[in-house]
Specification:
The protein has 142 residues and is of the alpha+beta class. The chain has three helices and seven strands. It has one domain (3-138): Electron Transport, Fmn-binding Protein, Chain A (Pnp Oxidase, Chain A, Roll), CATH 2.30.110. 23% of the residues lie in helices and 39% in strands. A hairpin with an 8-residue loop joins strand 5 (70-77) and strand 6 (86-96). The longest helix has 14 residues, at 100-113.
């Protein structure tokens, strides 16, 4: 898979699996929805702590990012025909967004991708992942 195709698949993906690092060094993985924003040569993923029911408003993944900002997420496609398998992994630095203009840009990008984020105000934390590396694999790609 070419780097351009990996980026294209990352932009189009509807869901990924986000890995953060707990204080004790163990991994913490959760599914998440995100929007990709490209600013010049930089690429960022944004997600929000939305209003879906949660056990607590204090999410482990936010705490993890504040303690250790190293994050990765993966998107993939599974087929019973294993010649069609692929994955894309994005690695970078996570951070809670505090600037109002960046928050607005992130919410706009999320609203363009997911109808659930359109229209209503969102008070949850917005998180940016400043992507530093994208790697990918595809069955049959040599």
């Amino acid at each position: 898979m070419t780097p351009e195709e990996a980026r294209r698949r990352l932009v189009r993906a509807r869901v990924g699996r986000l890995a953060t690092v707990r204080r004790d060094g163990s991994p913490h993985v959760v599914p998440f929805v995100f929007a990709i924003v490209e600013i010049g040569s930089e690429i960022r993923a944004y997600w929000i702590v939305d209003d879906k029911p949660k056990r607590s408003p204090f999410l482990r993944r936010i705490e993890n990012i504040e303690t250790n900002p190293s994050v990765e997420f993966v998107i993939d496609e599974y087929w019973d025909d294993w010649d069609r398998l692929w994955w894309v992994r994005a690695s970078g630095t996570g951070r809670v967004v505090h600037a109002s203009n960046e928050r607005a840009m992130a919410l706009e990008a999320l609203g363009e991708k997911y109808p659930q984020y359109r229209g209503s105000p969102h008070s949850g934390a917005v998180v940016a992942i400043d992507i530093e590396r994208i790697s990918a694999w595809e069955a049959g790609a040599g």
